Amino acid sequence: MEILDWEVGQFSTSCRFRNVEDDVVWVFTGVYGPFSREERKCLWEEIGAIRGIWEEPWCLRGDFNIILSQSERSRQRRITSAMRRFAQIIDDLGLVDLPLQGGLFTWSGGLNNQSWARLNRFLATPSWLDQFNSVFKRRLPRTTSDHFPVYLRVGMVVRGNASYRLATTLKEIKQNLKIWNRKVFGRLECNKVAVLRQVEFWDLMERERSLTEEEIVCKKEAKEGYAKWVSMEETHWRQLSRELWLRKWDRNTGYFHRMTTAHRRVNSLDRIKKNGVWLSKEQELKQINQQEAELLELPFSETEVHAALMDMNGDKAPRPDGFTVAFWQSCWDS
Predict the structure, then answer these.
(1) Which domain holds residue 226?
(2) Is the model more confident about 87 or about 278?
(3) Strand pairing partners for 29?
(4) Any residues with CB less than 8 A from the CB of 116 and at least 6 apart, and which?
(5) Distance between CA 204 and CA 211 in Å, rounded?
(6) Number of domains, the chain
(7) Sign (positive/negative) of CA torsion 320, 321, 323, 328?
(8) Quick one: 29 and 174 in the same domain?
(9) pLDDT above 70: percentage of residues in the chain
(10) How confident is the model at residue 158 (pLDDT cuts 50, 70, 90)?
């Protein structure tokens, strides 16, 4: 990676990079936000000036010392003008606030560390996110600082037309899902037992004394974690049963023919309801007119296909491409 240019401001440092292997140029800005209203105004002017100088894909990272919403700070009961201004700056510059995994907050302090806030974050333009694959932001454990380290991992740079980039991205997602599946689903029972012990621990502590606000948050997270593992275990066994069924179908020709015959029996049509009257005899069924017959033979419309897809259970067994019904339901409009 080669540095092409840089700008140093009062509250930020920006560098313009070029990737040596593919000549992609992009911008990174490190920020340390001030506390006062006037100084924060200077920070927003600095960031806006950087966008005015360089138009390449852009990523910002730092301690902004301001939150975006009430949920990002403990005991935050109202939306302040500073929060509104921060949200407006992000919107005006076309930035995306990357979701944080591993925890809700990035800082804690005050008396007995009872104050929590999300002050550190990564922001990026959509063009920067398009340049890099599988962007992942996670909070790491802290040792001495009152701030949690925030780690950003990016995958390989993808080139080509839109369909090629999508195919490449889906392949990498599939590999990451396999790794995630081994780490998470492979230890479902252990994870469920571990988080249940946490719930029991906080229950015992609550019997002896009142929990602090931080401990109440930990207990709530433990309960939510247990509910998550139980739900995932149920989904795992449901999908596993379908997977075994598919394997048996695929490998046993006799089983395949028996199931096909059974389906034919189940799917047989011995009567039909027309205008509230059941028709079962052949001569009665012939009462369907030509227009109705033509309607039955029309190809399925996109609206009908969409309605049928949305009515299906999201955890239905995946197709040969490996993606479940839930994936296509959530990505239909994409």
Answers:
(1) 161-268
(2) 87
(3) 14, 60
(4) 73, 74, 104, 105, 107, 108, 214, 217
(5) 11
(6) 2
(7) negative
(8) no
(9) 78
(10) low
Residues 183 and 139 in one domain: no
C-alpha distances out from residue 121 to 39, 66, 88, 152, Å: 19, 10, 16, 10
DSSP state of 159: -
Boundary (domain end) residue, out of 99, 124, 159: 159
Q: Which of 109, 128, 159 is the last residue of a domain?
A: 159
pLDDT of residue 230: 81
CA–CA separation, 53 vs 33, rounded Å? 21
Query: In terms of domains, do 149 and 169 share one?
Result: no
**Is the residue at 97 inside a domain?**
yes
- Note the pLDDT tens digit of each residue in 266-325: 556 677 777 777 777 665 556 667 787 788 788 888 888 888 888 887 766 656 666 777
Give the pLDDT confidence of 220-264 residue by residue, as tens digits: 888 888 888 888 777 766 665 554 455 544 545 555 455 555 555
Which CATH number is 130's domain given?
A: 3.60.10.10
Query: How many other β-carbons are positioned within 10 Å of the β-carbon of residue 54?
Result: 19
